[in-house]
Amino acid sequence: MHNLLHFTQSFDTDMNQYITLFGKQIYIILFIIIFAKTAYIVLTFLPGDATLFASGTIAAIGHLNFPILLLLFFLATVAGDAQNYWIGSLVGKSSKKEKKYSLFKYIPNKSIEKTQRFLTNYGKYAIMFSRFVPLLSTTLPFISGFTSYSFKRFLGHNMIGATVWTFTWVCAGYALGNLSWVGSHLFLSLLGITLVSFIPPFIAFAIEYMKKKTAAAKVLEI
Q1: Cα distance between the two ends of the chain
Q2: What pLDDT digit, counting tens, does each position of 41-54 carry?
Q3: What Å distances lie between residue 58 and 15, 53, 194, CA to CA?
Q4: What span, in angstroms and rounded, lies between the C-alpha atoms of 181 and 121?
Q5: Between vectors from CA 131 to CA 129 and to CA 134, what angle results, nearest 5°?
Q6: At what angle do helices 49-60 and 66-97 cross, to 10 degrees?
Q7: Over the stretch 49-84, which tens digit does the pLDDT of each residue have?
Q8: Is the pLDDT of residue 35 over 90?
Q9: What is the reported pLDDT for 32?
Q10: Is 136 exposed, middle or buried (0-12, 13-18, 19+ CB in 10 A)?
């Protein structure tokens, strides 16, 4: 257990060592990490944004293949989110059938209704940009399935979000990978991208909020 925790905590900063140790199998490990983090809420502690950024920086110096990383992380994200959605869907259906012994027993109806309204009003932006927000990236797919949000809509928005997320962090790492400061201060670089990751969803939600506020004001004027 201690070795597993050390592995997850040091994987991003020590990735070059793991590449030397595992060779091309590192691609399988990268896929599993992102898929598992996305597919199972209990594994949300696994590295995410930082893994993509670190992979990009290493691709910049030729130790990893850039196109393979883009495709690998995109597929891992989409597949993981879909898995998480169906887990939520199965839990939701079983909970409704056996309400007395289910999660619904502990989750107030108001909370479920609020979540459903949130997905109805902001579902597109929430799903697309949830990848950039720690914890929300793993809980929102589950909640989408749990509340019976349309899988077709979820998958479409999720694929857009996975594309944006993958390109943003892998390309950022690739662009900055040849800078000596980034290589020497990888921990600070990873900390910085964690803070920056909150900007896109904040902007998206702010725009959507202003749209709805403007629409409500027009209705009141009428």
Answers
A1: 63
A2: 888 878 778 888 88
A3: 8, 9, 18
A4: 43
A5: 115
A6: 170
A7: 888 888 888 898 888 999 999 999 999 999 999 999
A8: yes
A9: 93
A10: middle
Q: How far apart are CA 23 and CA 7, in angstroms?
A: 16
User: Which residue reads 């110096």 in tokens?
Assistant: 61
Q: Render the burial of 147-180: b for 16+ CB within 10 Å, e for the rest.
A: bebeeeebeebbbebbbebbebbbbbbbebbeee
Q: Are 25 and 18 in contact (CB under 8 A)?
A: no
Mean pLDDT taken over the chain = 76
Only one residue has tokens 């900007």, namely 199
Q: Retrieve residue 71's tokens.
A: 């495709």
Least confident of 118-127, 140-149, 154-163: 118-127
Q: Is 64 left (phi over 0), alpha (psi -120 to 50) or beta?
A: beta
Nearest to 159 by CA among 75, 55, 45: 75
The span from the CA of 92 to the CA of 103, in Å, is: 8
**Amino acid (one-letter) located at 38:** T
Amino acid at 91: V
43, 36 in Cβ contact below 8 A? yes
Comparison of pLDDT for 136 and 208, the residue scoring more: 136
DSSP of 151-204, one letter per residue?
Answer: HHHHHHHHHHHHHHHHHHHHHHHHHHTT-HHHHHTHHHHHHHHHHHTTHHHHHH
Instruction: Give the three-class secondary structure for 106.
Output: coil
Distance CA 53, CA 159 (A): 19
pTM reported for the whole predicted model? 0.72
